[in-house]
Amino acid sequence: MLFVFLGTILLLTSILLRKIYYKKKDSDDWRKSESYSTHSEVVLDTSNTLEYDYFFRGGVKLIFIKDLSKVGVSFDSSFKEKGEFMKKYNLIEDDQYSYPNFKVFRFLENMSDEERKELVQSMKTEKYINVIGDLLIHPDNNSTSIILDRIIVHWKESDYEKINSILKEKGLEELNKEMSSRGNKSILKVNHPSNYRVVDVCNELVASGTVHSAEPDLYSPLILDNK
């Protein structure tokens, strides 16, 4: 009888310990799942932010990758509060694309084009930012440049009245003008340059037939070779 009693006690103890173990395991697994889910919420879905685009340089069509989930920023050399800047604008640094002279940040929230435009415009008002703009990414080696708010144009057209009409239509401002035997060259400022509008304006001018060339001015320019 004693052995039967002891056997029953051991069996019940074994069942109780197994229940405690699996209950703890389920709890641990749930916590891991919750942690992963929480982390995933701050990762931007970039499935619709990457696409190929192009512009012309010297008559050659150059392909690049554009990414609306990122922005390039060059800070004043005295600026030391990068962490506060990232927190203020809900950004994370993307080391894959950053350079010593400028940093690349990823937005941690999905935004409409208009929301992104307004946020970048707000960032531009920070006094410690020297340059900010969309990114031009080489499709082969991921080297990167910031697209400035200027384009370099070589006009076919010599009629200044017609040129001024085009500038007004596209919201452009002539910063510099050079006369040459091959035609007129201008550096134009693009108003509201966010969301790759600078490249769009370049391609619109080329398609219009009024220019020999129109290309974006780049910060830390890279040479695209799409052979």
Compact summary:
With about 230 residues, this protein is an alpha+beta fold. About 35% of the residues lie in helices and about 35% in strands. It has helices at about 1-40, 80-90, 115-125, 160-170, 195-210, and strands at about 50-55, 60-65, 70-75, 90-95, 105, 130-135, 135, 145-155, 170-180, 185-190, 210-220.
Characterization of the model:
The protein has 227 residues and is an alpha+beta fold. It folds into two domains: 50-145, 2-Layer Sandwich (Alpha-Beta Plaits); 148-219, Alpha-Beta Plaits (2-Layer Sandwich). It has helices spanning 2-40, 82-89, 113-124, 160-170, 197-208, and strands at 50-57, 60-67, 70-75, 91-93, 103-107, 129-133, 135-137, 144-155, 172-180, 183-190, 211-219. Strands 7, 8, 9, 10 and 11 form a five-stranded antiparallel β-sheet that branches. The protein has a four-stranded antiparallel β-sheet with strand order 4-5-3-6, covered by helices on one side. The chain has a two-stranded antiparallel sheet with strand order 1-2. Strand 1 (50-57) and strand 2 (60-67) form a beta hairpin. The longest helix has 39 residues, at 2-40. The radius of gyration is 28 Å and the shape is globular. Residues 2-6, 15-47 and 221-227 have low confidence and may be disordered.
Broad structural category? alpha+beta
> What is the CATH-assigned architecture of the largest domain?
2-Layer Sandwich
Number of distinct helices? 5
Gross morphology = globular
Weakly predicted, low-confidence segments: 2-6, 15-47, 221-227
Largest sheet: 5 strands, antiparallel
Tell me the helix content: 25-40%
Question: What oligomeric arrangement do these chains adopt?
Answer: single chain
Element-by-element helix/strand order: HEEEHEEHEEEHEEHE
Average pLDDT metric:
78
Q: How much strand?
A: 25-35%
End-to-end Cα distance: 91 Å
Question: So what's the CATH class of the largest domain?
Answer: Alpha Beta
| CATH fold title of the largest domain | Alpha-Beta Plaits
Count all strands and give the number.
11
Report the C-alpha radius of gyration, rounded: 28 Å
**Tally of distinct domains:** 2
